[in-house]
Amino acid sequence: MPLNARPSSRIPNFYQRSLPERLALVAQWAGLDASEQAALLGIGGLSSTQADHMAENVVGVYALPLGIATNFLINDRDHLVPMVIEEPSVLAAVSNAAKMARTGGGFTAHTDEPVMIGQLQVLDVENVYAAAGYVWAIRDELLNAANDPTSSIVQQGGGAKSIELHPYPVTRAGAMLIVHILYDVRDAMGANAINTACERIAPLIQQATGGRVNLRILSNLSDQRRAQVTCTIPADTIGGAEVVSRIVEAGVFAEIDPHRATTHNKGIMNGMDAVCIATGNDWRALEAGAHAYAARSGQYRSLTEWTQDAHGDLHGRIDVPLAVGTIGGATRVHPAAKVALKILGVSGARQLAEVIASVGLAQNLAALRALATEGIQRGHMSLHARQLATAAGASGELVDWIAALMVSEGVIRLERAKELVALLSQNK
After folding, report:
1. pLDDT in tens, 369-418
2. Backbone phi, then psi, for 352, in 5-degree steps?
3. Annotated catalytic residue within 21, 76, 87, 374
4. Would you tell me which CATH number, out of the four given (3.30.70.420, 3.40.47.10, 3.40.50.620, 3.30.2130.30), belongs to the domain 115-218?
5. Residue 418 is a catalytic residue
């Protein structure tokens, strides 16, 4: 069977179709049954009863738009990518960027083994280096204790793999030994498994060191679990050599200046977070890890790198920590998240991470191209006009009509949208 045995994700004019038509196309593409289609429409989706079991003090259910990014070709395999986001232009931009990347062969993605870090904070030791030696001497015992044989992750070949020691002889809280347990979480995000493992070995560490273990918790800087994605965009696809040069210049700006890097990386996270939310993953953990990794040199920098290759084409790369799961948590509780994973058709957490990182790189490409050419507001404001038209009370075809009129006038404001709605109502 060929590697890409799925239909093409290149669906021309997808955005121009009606919502029912788009849903029907995706349902056919991913083999969704009637109940799965209903979950995407909020019918039979997350119920208030389910929500009440997911969080505290629940009083209702909050909905956001779920859209599909098209054109993604990742490691020679087509993907339609569900994204949950309310910001205008993101889905259109990322789909267009993926279309450009297809002309250069799509995205090439790689992920590390799904190893996460659990941390134990050891205090009240006489000599932090001697304490480190005591822990090192019982490292095999610690690994055995961490690996609960009844754990599904351990049964699948995951679990605690090694121990790292980080002594801090002088801190404001006194001498401190930080013990890292490196834990392979397989297809889970892994927070619960790691926290449980940390708590299992804490008494053994206290006994060995004579110290006191305070915190026992995972780290969201998952730098052992990264995704790297590259793509090449032919110069004639993106607008010529001058556009390539301008994008490279914009990328360097984000490499050297933290104020620019912050906005640059926010755009990347627009794409990555949206896929995380759609699949029921912890986007806050993703954000924390990505931004910490961006500052690993001591200065906050870009998560991507853009260069011009020997042929004059644009080459992009992203390297980012990415801790996501396809089992456990909301991924298997939220009805729409389950459908989103089915649409993606990923084989596990590593492939999901490859998709998410590819979306981040595509979103960055779209933003830099817009900034380096016509400016970011042109496409953004035309879509923003639709939001304003809806907020002013327009519905159906009137939303697009009022939005187009405001764009043509160059007056994209809520007050103008309300005026047009009132005018149309009077002329009915």
Report:
1. 999 987 555 555 666 787 788 888 888 778 877 888 888 888 888 888 88
2. -60, -40
3. 87
4. 3.30.70.420
5. no
